[in-house]
Design brief:
The mean pLDDT is 94. Helix 2 packs across helix 7 and helix 12 crosses helix 13. The protein is of the alpha/beta class and 603 residues long. It contains 22 helices and 24 strands.
């Protein structure tokens, strides 16, 4: 299948699919789903593309989107591509200072904003952004400032494009046909756990190659699939995946409210959906909670179902062997009962497979998900590699690996076991950051990921983030992610930050699942006035001590947590402790909790 430049993709697919649905989204005001056909999508894209010309958008100019997932986001993307313009997507939860940095560096003149939160930040940011000329408002319910003279509603912009004359149509046609492989398509800023964000430059050729190799690898997808767009489209994982769905003619359901994902999944019943490990961790925790509160024959059946599933799917099918007859019969029984009920409860009973990436997947989670018959494909990728570097398959995968390398992506292990990448999907560098580009891409064209790993049985394994390695004052190296990944599967632990750098031993800051702690306190008759007092209660600290010690048994003595503090408030983006993709900013955590950390190291 020949992949067309994104400037031509929507028009080409509209000619092929016509009135077939391309995506749908929910009208929350009327509580109904609205479907958009390929023909409608193509018309919408063309009208906005023509409006871009009217506004004076130049070829290879940067425009920015600052919105939660919305259908307008895809319309804007491809209207920009038809103009050979560059899209700079900003996370919907970005602060005013974060968007100011990117707007100024990318010299953005036109910023598309989603809801009230984004509008308020963007309008305030205009005073510090000299390039910013116009805000285009997507949500009709947004209330504009009384002195606002630079904003326009999206629907009004659409009308402008609809009235475009033949000259503008001809200009747009010329732009579409003149798109080249080296044209920039997107500049995606990595949120960065340390330092300022860097804009990853991705070209037509990067995306075209990503589409090609995914078509080559993922032969099990078809036009019959329905993909739920769950993660932010700003993130390269969801962005590249949704584009892949458009290329393949897969219908996309756009989830606009992340906090309502559980109900949306049940309404949509998707066959495929990108997710992060945290989604499956919550599924696992929910099942463990259900098992813990169940008794008798029902509990025995649930435990046996997981055991049988493990034998059937992991011990046999995974390695190409036929399960014993009795295991097959028991598996079929559980497939129609316990597994079916679990999948229906989540909303994934129609599941084909579920790509998962963005962080390490704990082995226990991976084993559980596959044991109950859910095909989770674990992958590894970066913004700089246009998403996927490697991914597992439905069979032949190894628990703990991130699968086999994608076709024609070169991977080698360098010094300090660092994973190095080269190929057509790899970025040519960081926007306006020559030094950072030179530091990341060597003279032979290898991109240095900063991730450590190794190959085994033809599959790639990740070990740690090299820059995050801690060295204790005793000279021992600690990989904090390994401990954090192991412990966060516990039903009582929501967030965790390992502390060890230049310290005598390993300690941890732990954000508990407050609801479970309160429930435990009620069962044990523990009285308390607030959460801070409860988390200092000896019975609560003893509970966590026991659970931590059980989970960290596999680690060397010097790697194990000696002391910990339970926090009455979670880590947050507002306090600067988390990135937009919810990764821990360790330097900020260390600074914000300096007194708490120092206290753990007092003799």
């Amino acid at each position: 299948m020949a992949i067309k430049h994104f400037s031509l993709l929507v028009r080409s697919q509209a000619e092929k699919y016509g009135d077939r649905e391309v995506f749908r989204h929910k009208d929350f005001e009327n509580d109904k789903w609205i479907s958009t056909s390929w023909t409608q999508f193509s018309e919408q894209v063309e009208h906005i593309a023509l409006a871009f010309l009217t506004m004076g958008v130049r070829e290879q100019e940067n425009i920015a989107t600052y919105t939660q997932n919305r259908p307008e986001g895809l319309i804007i993307d491809f209207a920009a591509y038809e103009n050979r313009a560059v899209v700079v997507p900003l996370y919907a939860n970005s602060s005013q200072s974060q968007i100011e940095y990117i707007i100024n560096e990318a010299e953005v003149r036109f910023l598309f904003v989603g809801g009230q939160f984004q509008y308020d930040n963007a309008y305030a940011a205009r005073k510090n952004c000299t390039s910013l000329e116009k805000l285009i408002i997507l949500d009709p319910s947004v209330k504009l400032a009384e002195d606002d003279t630079i904003s326009i509603r999206f629907e009004d912009l659409y009308k402008i494009g609809k009235q475009a004359d033949n000259v503008l149509h001809d200009t747009l046609e010329q732009r579409m046909l003149s798109a080249s492989d080296e044209d920039l398509v997107s500049i995606i800023y990595t949120s960065g756990t340390t330092g300022e964000p860097k804009g990853v430059m991705l070209t037509n050729s990067n995306f075209n190659e990503a589409m090609r190799i995914h078509i080559q690898r993922l032969k099990m997808v078809s036009e019959k699939d329905i993909s739920l767009c769950f993660l932010p489209l700003t993130h390269i994982f969801e962005r590249a995946w949704t584009y892949f769905c458009l290329v393949k003619g897969i219908r996309v359901v756009i989830n606009q409210k992340p906090d309502e994902i559980q109900s949306v999944i049940k309404e949509v019943r998707p066959t495929i959906m990108c997710s992060v490990p945290r989604f499956w961790e919550k599924v696992y925790a929910g099942v463990q909670e259900k098992i813990a509160e169940t008794t008798g024959i029902k509990k025995m059946l649930m435990l046996d179902a997981i055991k049988v599933g493990r034998i059937h799917n992991l011990d046999y099918l995974r390695v190409g062997k036929t399960p014993p007859r009795m295991i097959q019969l028991k598996y079929k029984f559980y497939e129609k009962t316990i597994y079916a009920l679990l999948k229906k409860t989540i909303g994934i009973e129609n599941g084909n497979f579920f790509p998962t990436a963005g962080a390490a997947v704990p082995d226990e989670i991976c084993e559980f998900v596959h044991s109950v018959g859910i095909d989770m494909l674990v992958g590894y990728g970066l913004t700089e590699s246009t998403a996927t570097v490697s991914c597992t398959s439905k069979t032949g995968y190894d628990i703990g690996s991130v699968g086999q390398v994608m076709p024609e992506v070169e991977v080698k292990i360098g010094e300090d076991n660092e994973i190095l990448l080269r190929g057509k999907t790899i970025t040519k560098g960081y926007y306006k950051k020559a030094e950072a580009t030179a530091a990341a891409i060597d003279e032979e064209g290898w991109f240095h990921t900063g991730d450590a790993g190794y190959f085994k049985n033809g599959q790639l394994y990740l070990t740690e983030r090299i820059k995050d390695l801690f060295k204790t004052s005793n000279g021992k190296y600690i990989a904090p992610q390994a401990l954090e990944t192991k412990l966060v599967i516990d039903r009582y632990i929501d967030q965790i930050a390992i502390i060890a750098d230049q310290r005598k031993f390993v300690s941890a800051l732990i954000v508990p699942v407050y609801g479970f702690v309160k429930q435990y306190a009620k069962e044990k008759g523990i009285e308390y006035k607030d959460m801070a007092e409860l988390l200092e209660h000896p019975k609560i600290t003893a509970l966590f001590r026991a659970r931590i010690d059980t989970l960290q048994q596999q680690f060397a003595h010097y790697e194990q947590i000696k002391r910990f503090t339970l926090l009455p408030e979670p880590f947050s983006m507002e306090k600067g402790e988390l990135t937009n993709t919810l990764k821990l900013k360790r330097p900020v955590v260390a600074r914000n909790y300096k007194e708490v950390i120092d206290k753990m190291y007092e003799e």
